[in-house]
């Protein structure tokens, strides 16, 4: 999800300078959720691929980037497609906008519309 940065949140100001939004990943992966629980909080990180290139599904697929990483976890291969995560903009109160249709699209739209009662910007639901 993309959220509006708050000037009162020091960490938000330090991430992606010059950009008004902050992306928060909500992983549907038991391993990375366990890592977050072990560290007792969220992790600030980037994708394991060069921007614009295909998504990595296993740790060896981004070996060329390891030297730029503080830590590399190998939780096994990801069992999903390479279409990437669904990205949803939540910067307008009561509404959502689909930025990218990817993994988890149907589940995300269901939660946004049925649980949180948000409406799709510009009209009807995509689904």
Describe the structure.
The protein has 127 residues and is of the alpha+beta class. Helix content is 20%, strand content 13%. It is built from 3 helices and 5 strands. The strands form 2 sheets. The protein has a 3-stranded mixed beta sheet with strand order 3-4-5, with helices on one face. It has a two-stranded antiparallel sheet with strand order 1-2.
Structure, briefly:
The model has no long low-confidence stretch (mean pLDDT 87).
Apparent shape? globular
Radius of gyration: 16 Å
Distance between the termini: 18 Å
Order of helices and strands: EHEHEEHE
E-strand count: 5
| Portion of residues within helices | 10-25%
How many helices does DSSP assign? 3
Protein traits:
about 130 residues; alpha+beta; 3-stranded mixed sheet; two-stranded antiparallel ribbon; 3 helices; globular
Write the layout of secondary structure elements.
Blueprint: E1 2-4, H1 10-14, E2 21-23, H2 30-38, E3 87-89, E4 95-100, H3 105-115, E5 119-120
Parallel strand pairs: 4-5
Antiparallel strand pairs: 1-2, 3-4
């Amino acid at each position: 999800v993309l959220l509006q940065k708050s000037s009162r949140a020091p960490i938000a100001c330090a991430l992606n300078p010059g950009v008004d939004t902050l992306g928060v990943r909500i992983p549907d992966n038991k391993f990375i959720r366990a890592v977050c629980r072990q560290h007792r909080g969220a992790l600030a990180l980037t994708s394991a691929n060069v921007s614009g290139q295909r998504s990595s599904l296993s740790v060896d697929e981004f070996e060329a980037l390891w030297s730029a990483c503080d830590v590399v976890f190998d939780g096994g291969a990801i069992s999903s497609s390479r279409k990437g995560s669904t990205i949803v903009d939540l910067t307008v109160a009561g509404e959502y906008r689909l930025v990218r249709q990817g993994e988890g699209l149907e589940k995300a739209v269901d939660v946004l519309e049925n649980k949180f009662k948000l409406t799709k910007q510009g009209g009807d639901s995509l689904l």
